[in-house]
Amino acid sequence: MATQQSQSIQTLLEAEKEAAKVVQQARQFRVQKLKDARTQATKEIEEYRRSKEQEFKAFEASHAGNTQSASVAIDKETDVKRKEITAQYNKSKDQVVKKLLDRVVLVKPELHRNLKKVEA
Asked: Which residues contact 45 (CB under 8 A, 6 or more apart)?
C-alpha cells in the first residue's frame, strides 16, 4: 500500500509539473501574441500615416496650382484696370484742369443770399 501511495503521489507530482509547464507555455504564448499584435498595429499605423501624408501632399499640390493661377489672373486683371484708369486720366486731365481754372479765374461777383440789401 505504501508503494501504491508513493506511486499516486509521484503521478500527482508529475501531473502538477506537466500542468505548470502548460500554464507557463500558455503565458509565453499570450505574451508573444501581445508583442506580435503590438508590432502589427505599429506597422498598420505607419502605413496609414504614410498614405494620409501622400493624400495630403497630392491635395496640397493640386490646390497650390490653383492658388498660383488665381494669383496670376488677379495680377493680369489689376494691370488691365490700371491701364484703363491711366487712359481715362490722360484723356480727361486737360478738361479737368480747364474747368478748375475757369472756376478760379472767372468769378462772377454776386451778393450772398443771406445778405440783406440796405436801402438808404
From this structure: none
